[in-house]
Amino acid sequence: MPSPAPLPAPVLGSMRFGDWGARLSPDAVADLLAAALDLGIDTLDLADIYGGHTTNALVGAALAARPGLRARLRLVAKVGIRMASSPGNPRGVQHYDLSVAHLRRALDGTLAALGVDRVDTVMLHRFDPLLEPAAIAAWVRAEQAAGRVGGFGVSNFDAHALALFDGRLPVVANQIELSLAQTSALDDGTLAATRARGAEAQAWSPLGGGGLLDPQSPAGGRLHAPLRAMAADFGLDPAGLLLRWVATLPDTRVVLGTANPRRLADAVRACGEALPRDAWYALHEAARGHPVP
Ligand SMILES: NC(=O)c1ccc[n+]([C@@H]2O[C@H](COP(=O)([O-])OP(=O)(O)OC[C@H]3O[C@@H](n4cnc5c(N)ncnc54)[C@H](OP(=O)(O)O)[C@@H]3O)[C@@H](O)[C@H]2O)c1
User: Is the pTM of this model over 0.90?
Assistant: First the structure.
């Protein structure tokens, strides 16, 4: 029997590189990116707000310090959140802003901070009920024509929100929270709607932000024993089994949250193969606390 095709390599997330996590130096970010690329991870997830609007510049400094990295990387740039502390937010109200004026400004800022002239995917970070899909589609097409943007993606969009772009603009990816701690995208149609459009799901917080590895947390407590019991069957540790559970979902790439290069090889190996159905469901049931009906 032919062996199954290998699963796609995960994406590396940058949320915890800087002030929201590991506070890496530009050189350490460059080392992390080089290690990821050498393991086949070529996609880097970014957002203008990460590190309180500092992490894109940190990545930009890493790219400037290590010529050659940029050309090997595919950059996913999320925009569309204005934090209370974001510049140019006079009322200090945290909100979503998918107006074309804000998106254009945020893309300008992203390209400048990264020191690049193009991102591979521009991604709407959160659904904004005030969004105008026709205006956004026209803006994205103009940015594509100008060579500043490759594909168009969304994040945290449910099935109905995704439908707003049907017939207007192809969606290449929907980045959604997906782990054994957060499975609502499987039940509410979000994952199915993403796949139905030929888009990939990018699963953020696959370890529940690390909480799934904490036996004191509610979900981590429920999963502690089954993870330890099953991990050895697959030659993985509990974190690897959690990643493989997510990577098993079709058309889904894990977005890794680590800032530690020593974890990357194990993570890539964990994401490279699917779990058998019975093992996948056993963990799903352990996390839910009850079997499927
Ligand atoms: N679209 C959105 O709205 C959205 C929201 C949140 C996040 N994201 C994206 O998703 C990415 C991943 O999210 P996340 O950071 O929450 O992912 P995660 O993988 O659930 O959590 C990462 C955390 O778990 C820790 N960890 C990893 N492996 C571990 C292990 N074996 N043992 C103990 N701790 C371990 C990491 O620490 P170490 O650094 O020490 O490994 C890190 O602190 C982010 O970087 C961001 O790009 C997107």
Answer: yes
